[in-house]
Amino acid sequence: MWRESKQVKSQGIVFYFAKEANTSFFEAYRMINALSSVSSVMAESFGVMDILFYGIAVYEGYKFSFRRITEEEIWAKAGIQ
User: Fold this and answer.
1) Which one of 18, 43, 48, 56 is CB 3.0 to 4.6 Å from 28, fit for a cystine?
2) Phi, psi values for residue 68, rounded to 5°
3) pTM surpassing 0.85?
């Protein structure tokens, strides 16, 4: 029962992808299978260094996402002098 439910969901995803990509169901299924093989290769080659670099990237992205905005910048963006 669960397997059938999972299969129906995956078919729905393929139908949606086919509609958005303006391709046939089978072409979309082939494209998705190619993507899943890429993800499996990435999963097999995943290591501790990847976690370290992803952690650095998240930290730096979070740190650089904040900056002080002055009141003059707010008024300039609003178009009020």
Assistant:
1) 18
2) -75, 135
3) no
